[in-house]
Design a protein that fits this description.
Oligomer: single chain
Order of helices and strands: HEEEEEEEEEEEEEEEEEE
Strand content: over 45%
Radius of gyration: 33 Å
Strand order of the largest sheet: 2-9-8-4-6
Largest sheet: 5 strands, mixed
Length: 224
């Protein structure tokens, strides 16, 4: 009986020690900072995971409507899936936070800082017009249109001739980031004394100031 009593007491002590250990596990959240970015106009959310551990239940809250949490509460251990929604957010940095708190009234809390950068490239071209005068039908002019990104985020662009005039030819029709478009203007075939016009259009999806238009003009004149 004494042996049984010792064994019983031993089990009770073991249980009490285990419970005390569990009750003293501090709240921990990893990571404690989330930084991400998305392109202006995109609709796909960016995702990050928070790993939570503590002695018991916890709940997560946020004051930012572009931060969504699933789940927003859990037990001793859990993973919170954060979804950062770029839709309707203006370009630039957006700051928010998520607070994870133990459910007990005097429980610990951890604040996770969330920084979300909305990127927007800004298309810039070196000129908006090109003008030439030819006095014969075999003059060739060479010029260059420079393409630049005045914002942030990827700039992928294409270039085309609006009406497809054959007296204009482009040495580059696509690029990534800063680049140059060699332009060749020829009076060959322009037999009438007149002013010929067309437009070079540079498109960059998602970029501010896109499309950019460069008016091109060549005037065919008699040689005075």
């Amino acid at each position: 009986m004494l042996l049984a009593g010792v064994l019983i007491n031993g089990c009770q002590i073991s249980k009490l020690l285990t419970a005390a250990t569990e009750e003293n596990v501090p709240l921990a959240v990893n990571p404690t900072q989330v930084r991400d970015s998305a392109l202006m106009g995109s609709s796909a959310p960016r995702v990050a995971n928070l790993n939570v551990s503590n002695s018991g239940g916890w709940a997560a809250t946020t004051g930012s409507d572009w931060i969504r949490m699933n789940p927003s509460s859990g037990g001793a251990r859990g993973t919170v899936r954060l979804s950062l929604d770029p839709k309707d957010l203006a370009p630039g940095w957006h700051e928010g936070e998520v607070m994870v708190k133990q459910k007990s009234s005097d429980g610990d809390s951890v604040t996770i800082d969330v920084s979300f950068l909305i990127l927007q490239p800004i298309l810039s071209v070196s000129t908006t017009s090109l003008k030439y005068t030819a006095y014969d039908d075999h003059t060739v002019f060479h010029d260059t249109v420079k393409v630049a990104n005045k914002g942030n985020g990827p700039l992928v662009w294409t270039a085309r001739i609006a009406r497809g005039s054959d007296w204009i030819s482009l040495g580059a029709t696509a690029g990534d980031g800063a680049g140059e478009i060699p332009v060749r203007i020829s009076s060959k075939g322009l037999i009438f004394f007149a002013t010929y016009r067309d437009t070079i259009i540079v498109d960059a999806e998602g970029a501010k100031n896109s499309p950019a238009r460069i008016a091109v003009q060549i005037r065919r004149r008699k040689d005075d």
